[in-house]
Amino acid sequence: MAKIFILILFILPAVSYGQNTFRANVRDSLTREPLIGATAVLKGSTNGGVAGISGSLEIRDIPDGHQVIQISYIGYKLAELDLLFPLAHSQELIIGLIPEEQELDEIIISTTRTSRTIENVPTRVESIAFEEIDEKNNMRPANVAMLLHESTGIIVQQTSATSANASIRIQGLDGRYTQLLKDGYSNFGNFASGLSILEIPPLDLKQVEVIKGPASTLYGGGAIAGVINFISKTPGETGEYNFLINQSVIGQTNLGSFVSDRNKKLGYTFLALFNHQKPYDVDDDDFTELPALTDFTIFPKIFIYPTEKTTLWFGNSLTRGDRRGGDIEVIENKAGSGHIYFEDSKTLRNTSMAELDMKLKNKRQFTARSSFSYFDRNIGLPGYSFAGKNYNSFSDIIYSIDKENHIVVSGLNFVYDEFLETADPGFLKRDFTTRIGGLYAQHTWDISEKVKLESGLRADMAGYGNMIYRETEYFILPRVSVLFNFTDKLSSRIGGGAGYKTPTVFMEQTEAVQYRNIFPLDQVTSEKSLGATADLNFKSPIGEDFTLSINHMFFKTMIRNSIVLQSDSIGNILILNTKDPVISSGFETNLKMDYRDLVKIFVGYTFTEAKAEYLPGNQFLPLLPRHKINTAVFYELEKNLKIGFEAYYTGRQFLADGTRTPSFWELGAMVEKTFGKISIFLNAENFTDTRQSRYKSVANGPHSDPVFDDIWMHTEGFILNGGVKVRILK
């Protein structure tokens, strides 16, 4: 294992404690504050010591010869000393550990495939770092919904009143226009889309990268509103062992672990997460706000390092879930007269992945990756069932060249997606197959220190169809982004491009009705888009203690050939193209202030105006607030105490019937205390108990055949949860 660099601040003479005693004083390399509770261990043994209030520690009874001392503290890089005992001099070493947070200033972006720092990428990319992921993991360990819900410009839209299914909306556009990736792999579309964010655990994530606006060059169809790439941890030089236990007052239990380690030739990561949710009815209307749920995820990866410049890894992710919502009497096996309604959803997702990455001579790189995903889902309601299997394969070959001021990324990929309906719908089955092959190239050019240009072009051939019709389309998709560094404090990015989305029966609107009476696709063609973003970014220290950053972004997207639902006279629902476009425009403003890395303040505001010109009368898209505010304040003391407060405002929204909802606030607070390797956390989410049923009952009509209102805010209300995390670095 390579040795981690240690900053030795100074050496003080001390009284000798004997030839086999090690003495050190452990401090923060920046502030020189003592790190109380830091541990030092003689590698390969249990012999060690813990730093006291002054930061001093000692290890006794150390054998003669070469020995390695490991010094660790939560939130800091592991330090190793290779020493020869007996020591030539008996002295106390004052050792400065380097905070892991220092690396945040040099966040490396992988979604653009140029491996550049975030400040040096012409494409606008937002990065959610590990520290924030870890904080949101305290709130909802089961999935990434909370992580995305509290991000500016992103809305997690609940699509079911009783089973809590959800999708993601960026810049006001439906979830089908956002491409979800896990480590660059696209396996979350079509039939799986309504449950995708509910089946991605945050425990193994090191970073989340978000591109808002068109990102078609590298990721093709579906990346109209943007791309969200969930990036997993990889084995590091230090073994990592994480364990989590969480319990909520709403009946949710989470048990999870993530472990990783490597040597020179082999490495591994392993994620395991189990979630259990009791049925939860907060407003006593006999219908669940949260369904009864049991699911688990197991995700092992094996990494092979044949040479220093070659990495080969294999992984297989298995997720299984069983959720049952509806009438609480039915779920608790007390069904009786009038109590018969339920919504069942059973899912099985298995994804196998493999990737080869080779760093060649002259800064060239070759990557080949492939995945195969199987998704099986069964939906059951009284007198109705919908079931199917989705097969998805993704292959991508990438070759990049880095020469002085130019980086060229070129590649080809192939996507195969097949849905087979397994339950009898009573009419033609909604089977559908899509095949897409694409060639792409992206050129990043550092014209000067102040101007950097990224341009790309993609050519796709998409074939799709079912028993009724087949279609083949060709797409040429240009994209361009420019970064202007006006000064070392002020910069701007401008970009735009074209995109498309092949037709699918799986949308928020069809998910909300569990695909009842939805007819198969017939002569429906792809949706096509043009989009652009422009931002202005300012970042500067204020005095010696404060850092301020402000980012303001404008966006606009137009989608032509939009897919809409239309009911016939007997209640059958057809899926059609419309000639009238959907246009979404607006802006985001983000302000961040940091005081000595102790207090962090964030304020985000989003204004969105999205209209569908095919709608008669009121053309504003439903369930979309024009105004949204995100605020957060976090205080962190000596890397072992975190206190946070969050407040979120959602403005008025139009419902499908044209009425408007009231605006509302949600408030939350959390605290986390670390004792060495153990952290204890407590989280109060929405402690004002803001929920939709306080305005009006969500369920209408008889219990035997209820009709549910559109979901425009949280349904479960106040949530209090707490737990324990253990993190061991070895």
Topology:
Elements: E1 7-13, E2 22-28, E3 39-42, E4 48-50, E5 56-59, E6 65-72, E7 79-85, E8 91-97, E9 108-109, E10 116-117, E11 126-129, H1 130-139, H2 145-149, E12 154-158, E13 166-170, E14 178-182, E15 205-212, H3 216-219, E16 226-232, E17 240-248, E18 252-262, E19 266-277, E20 292-307, E21 310-326, H4 328-331, E22 342-360, E23 364-381, E24 384-403, E25 406-421, E26 432-446, E27 451-465, E28 470-485, E29 490-501, H5 508-512, E30 527-542, E31 546-560, E32 563-567, E33 573-577, E34 582-595, E35 599-612, E36 627-637, E37 641-650, E38 664-675, E39 678-685, E40 699-700, E41 707-708, E42 719-729
Parallel strand pairs: 2-8, 14-16
Antiparallel strand pairs: 1-8, 2-5, 3-4, 3-6, 6-7, 9-10, 11-15, 12-13, 15-16, 17-18, 17-42, 18-19, 19-20, 20-21, 21-22, 22-23, 23-24, 24-25, 25-26, 26-27, 27-28, 28-29, 29-30, 30-31, 31-34, 32-33, 34-35, 35-36, 36-37, 37-38, 38-39, 39-42, 40-41
Describe the structure concisely.
With 730 residues, the chain is mainly β. Helix content is 4%, strand content 56%. The protein contains five helices and 42 strands.
Search tags:
single chain, 730 residues, 22-stranded antiparallel beta barrel
What does this 3D model show about the protein?
This protein has 730 residues and is mainly beta. 4% of the residues lie in helices and 56% in strands. It has 5 helices and 42 strands. The strands form 8 sheets. The protein has a 22-stranded antiparallel β-barrel. Strands 1-8-2-5 form a 4-stranded mixed beta sheet, with no helix packed on it. A 4-stranded antiparallel beta sheet has the order 4-3-6-7, with no helix packed on it. Strand 23 (364-381) and strand 24 (384-403) form a beta hairpin. The protein is globular and about 95 Å long.
